[in-house]
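in:
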């Protein structure tokens, strides 16, 4: 609890014990008793929030938002609120990135995650003033930041080898914009937990990830054309590991070592930096597919003694530097360059495998979930369309023809006539069943065309499995349930 102390000449002070039990004092100067009591109530709310690791109420948040920077600095010095120098955008982001770097150094955070966070922080500083206070960033400012990314959010500087090239700003794609808004929202959630702001301005900005519209299926025939145009064995193996192994380029292929390949069991251990934060998903076992075995053996034969990595050419190279060589090979093969070069190779492999194996098996091999594969990987190919319109097998076609034959050797009925006959048979069977239930006579029989049709249908489908279809006029047994005899006399 805090108390109010009186000093000479009408001055007031607030005395309290902080969370560590140390006695501290906040001097207010010459103020009224009512004003001192209001400050005392806010101090107690701040102390309670710090002890319970929660946020303070809206009334205290509004009071802090209305304070000038000098008084906020005094509260920060007393460790009642976050540091005042972090309340502006650039110092806050610098402090956040520095703490995240410590996690990367201790192998608790992926370097790629920090790279994305740095890019988002840079975009925020390019759009907003570096000295802008966090609490002054509104929901409208967050929406303007999203629009900025959609129109001119691309970086103006690109590194080409040792040189930096200035280029015109380009708009970012919708999935990239959502990702950066999601990271920005994470920044402001951190500020909210440290009582630097009252609410997160990025709460209502679209952040959910979305499936890309740049999927492309690379046929095996086209893949082999590209493979023939790649310059070295390492390049051909890199391409094959993506197209027929489904490995991520370049995180997973960079870590592939010779001792990860079990030649006898025909398996490959794939280490996945992207999923290692999930328990039990730091690595997975992949079959040594025949498409990979030949290239791996060729690469093993040319490897130097003492080589550890399967693809040492990737050391010191960025993922972006791999694009140009692959694009030249695609063009030399006479093909059109597809978008998202390596992702679509991996997507094509998952699409092929799920035509043969169960989805849970394929996802275990490729290191993703069934939900993610359906949203970001599985594609509908031309082969699927061709399979859908393929003519029925001869035996199936003959069965359909037999069921459509007229009775007593007549010519085939039209589709409408056959459907009408079936409907009449179903109605007759239902009436027969109702009559048997009412009278107890279970020897009721179908007569006329219905009886003949039923006999011919059973003859044509003898030995064939029954289906559960509910359509009418398809050449199947009418779904009629006859009451079972359970009693020696009719049921009343």
């Amino acid at each position: 609890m805090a108390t109010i102390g009186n000093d000479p000449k009408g001055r007031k002070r607030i005395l309290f014990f902080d969370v560590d039990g140390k006695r501290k004092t906040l001097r207010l100067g010459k103020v009224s008793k009512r004003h001192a009591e209001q400050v005392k109530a806010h101090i107690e709310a701040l102390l309670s929030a710090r002890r319970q690791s929660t946020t303070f109420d809206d009334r205290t948040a509004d009071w802090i938002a209305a304070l000038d920077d000098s008084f906020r600095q005094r509260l920060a010095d007393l460790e009642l609120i976050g540091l005042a120098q972090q309340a502006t955008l650039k110092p806050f982001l610098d402090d956040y990135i520095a703490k995240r770097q410590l996690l990367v150094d201790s192998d608790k955070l992926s370097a790629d995650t920090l790279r994305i966070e740095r890019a988002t922080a840079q975009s925020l500083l390019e759009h907003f003033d570096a000295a802008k206070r966090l609490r002054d960033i509104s929901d409208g400012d967050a929406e303007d930041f999203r629009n900025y990314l959609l129109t001119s959010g691309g970086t103006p500087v690109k590194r080409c080898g040792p040189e930096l090239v200035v280029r015109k700003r380009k708009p970012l794609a919708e999935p990239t914009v959502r990702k950066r808004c999601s990271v920005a929202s994470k920044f402001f959630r951190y500020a909210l937990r440290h009582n630097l702001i009252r609410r997160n301005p990025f709460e209502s900005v679209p952040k959910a990830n979305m499936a890309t519209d740049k999927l492309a299926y690379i046929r095996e025939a086209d893949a082999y054309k590209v493979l023939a145009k790649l310059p070295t064995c390492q390049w051909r193996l890199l391409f094959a590991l993506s197209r027929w192994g489904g490995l991520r380029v370049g995180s997973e292929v960079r870590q592939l070592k010779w001792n990860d390949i079990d030649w006898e069991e025909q398996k490959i251990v794939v280490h996945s930096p992207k999923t290692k934060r999930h328990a039990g998903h730091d690595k997975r076992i992949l079959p040594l597919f025949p498409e990979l075995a030949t290239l791996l053996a060729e690469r093993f034969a040319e490897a130097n003694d003492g080589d550890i990595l399967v693809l040492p050419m990737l050391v010191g190279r960025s993922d972006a530097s791999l694009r140009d060589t692959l694009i030249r090979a695609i063009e030399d093969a006479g093909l059109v360059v597809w978008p998202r070069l390596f992702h679509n190779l991996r997507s094509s492999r998952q699409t092929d495998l799920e035509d043969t194996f169960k989805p849970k098996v394929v996802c275990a091999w490729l290191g993703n979930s069934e939900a993610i594969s359906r949203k970001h990987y599985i594609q509908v190919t031309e082969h699927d369309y061709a399979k859908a319109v393929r003519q029925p097998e001869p035996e199936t076609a003959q069965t359909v023809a037999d069921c459509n034959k007229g009775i007593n050797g007549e010519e085939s009925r039209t589709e409408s006539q056959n459907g009408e006959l079936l409907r009449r048979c179903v109605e007759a069977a239902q009436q027969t069943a109702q009559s048997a239930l009412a009278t107890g006579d279970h020897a009721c029989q179908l007569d006329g065309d219905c009886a003949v049709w039923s006999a011919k249908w059973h003859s044509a489908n003898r030995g064939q499995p029954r289906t559960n279809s509910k359509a009418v006029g398809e050449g199947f047994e009418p779904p009629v349930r006859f009451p079972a005899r359970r009693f020696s006399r009719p049921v009343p």
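note: The first strand starts at residue 3 and ends at 6.
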